[in-house]
Amino acid sequence: MLPYGRQSINDDDVAAVTRALGSDWLTTGPEVDRFEESIAERTNAAHAVSATSGTAALHLAYAAAGVGPGDEVVTTPLTFVATAATAAVFGAKIVFADVDPKTGNLDPAAAEAAVTPNTKVIAGVDYAGVPVEADALRALAEKNDALFLEDAAHSIGSRRNGKPVGSLAHMTSFSFFPTKNLTTAEGGALVTDNEELATRARRFKNHGLVRDKELQRYPDEGPWHQEVHSFGINYRLPDVLCALGSSQLQRLESFVARRAEIKRIYDEALANLDGVDIPFAPEGAEPAWHLYPLRVPAERRRAIFESLREQGIGVQVNYIPAYWHPVFEDLGYKRGMCPVAEDFYRREISLPMFPGLTDADVERVIKAVRKAVATA
User: Fold this and answer.
1) What is the pLDDT of residues 100-137, one digit of tens each?
2) Are strands 119-125 and 72-75 parallel, antiparallel or unpaired?
């Protein structure tokens, strides 16, 4: 079975991890600092805070924003549930707004209609690696005294109007899961230019510990003393995984280039298939193409999906609208709230997309898609 995503590991990655394993620091050491500095530099951000997953990075973002009961978070339903869940666990109300029918990204006009005086965060997702309309969403957030969070789980290496993702929002979260554009096995990061937000995020990821004596309530207790002023969680990404991430970052541009080449080949082969829409990127967007979200006729999607699986093509669907999950259904959310996102979901199939795909693999996928669309 040809998977829809797969990590790209080479000897340099293995050597980097081996060196970290042989060092004095398996966690909270110099590889963490090195990786965070590299992420900040790559994204033109002042601060980077590593975390144990993309979900953890989102949780850090909402913690840094001070999200809590009575607050509202406006976001897209066309995302993995973590984008909304990590705010909901703080007691926030999630307000889902519809998406652009071409990109699947949060529609700024729909987001604006969803904003209320209680809006604390507007969270856009770079679906498939296509950057959101960051200028519009950031301006909307600032107009309403809110923060703009860019969930860039799909898009490290992407750019918009020449600027790297990570430099466009008040806060940007990344995922380094194995299928993403680079990996630390499990891992993520939050980047921001705001020092106060970075400090809050860094503290939350380390149990809420305060070690600075000038900030402690009882600074004279002893040199060992540390305090917790607000609750946090252990989201520390260890040195071993940060070493892998630093090694992977050195190949990010080649990963992005290969994904773009695969996307071009798919586009040329599939653009004229009846009833099929290929992925779209607006002018000014340079996506890293984490996914290749092909859209097929909704009434035939399942048959096409099953045909591809039977042919050994490990396709996926991204994503079930977040409010379709029973946890949101039980809170009163109803299907039909965001019809554009729901239509996008009903038609979407993610084809294999990762740098290790050979040209022969890509041709195999194309042949299988043509057969599935013609016969399913």
Assistant:
1) 999 999 999 999 999 999 999 999 999 999 999 999 99
2) parallel
- Whole-angstrom CA distances from 81 to 94, 323, 350 are 11, 8, 17
> Which parts of the chain fold into alpha helices (H)?
11-21, 30-43, 54-65, 82-88, 108-114, 134-143, 195-204, 239-249, 252-270, 301-310, 326-329, 339-347, 359-375
Tell me how long the chain is: 376
Reported as a single tens digit per residue, the pLDDT across 184-196 is: 999 999 999 999 9
Q: Is 180 a catalytic residue?
A: yes
Tell me the residue type at 331.
L
Which residues of the chain are in CATH 3.40.640.10 domains?
Answer: 2-249
What are the pLDDT digits (tens) for 251-296? 999 999 999 999 999 999 999 999 999 999 999 999 999 999 999 9
Residue 103 to residues 126, 255, 265, 282, 368, Cα–Cα distance (Å): 9, 22, 19, 8, 24
Question: Architecture of domain 252-375 in CATH?
Answer: Alpha-Beta Complex (3.90)
347's tokens: 């038609």
Q: Of 120, 180, 205, 263, which residue is the catalytic one?
A: 180
Residue 85 C-beta-side C-alpha neighbours within 13 Å: 15
Beta pairing class for 171-175 and 188-192: antiparallel
How many H-runs (helices) and E-runs (strands) does the chain carry? 13, 16
In the chain, ranges of CATH 3.90.1150.10 domains: 252-375
CATH code of domain 2-249: 3.40.640.10
Closest residue by Cα to residue 74 from 117, 103, 129? 117
